[in-house]
Amino acid sequence: MRDKLVKVIIENEVANDVDERISTERFGMLSNEIVSIFPTEIKETYFSFSFKRKKDGTWAKIGSGKLYRKFYNNRRDMRHSGLLPSKLCSSQSNQTIPIGDADDNELAWLKNAVEPWTDVVRL
Length: 123
Description:
Layout: H1 2-13, H2 24-37, H3 43-46, E1 48-53, E2 59-64, H4 66-80, H5 87-93, H6 104-112, H7 117-122
Antiparallel strand pairs: 1-2
Helix pairs in contact: 1-4
């Protein structure tokens, strides 16, 4: 029954936009609502998070629980089936690099040159 409940909740959350993200705050609110409706349930079954230190020394929230896993497993499945763009493609496609006037000559050179490679890489 828990899996069915979680499935219905996640489907409802992404009904308007399958690419929409759910924040950790929203996961927390949803798990609180479940516990308020079903008092014998445990909030952490549906969502909890911990902190993990990243390589750069900052901290990241690491989510867990049935709601969290269902949401991210659905996203992974949609990416694999082509319904959502991959993480790499979506982050690169929205990236813009400003080019100033000083870069025009270098840009023109790069359009026509492929050698010497050390000059290409430097630009």
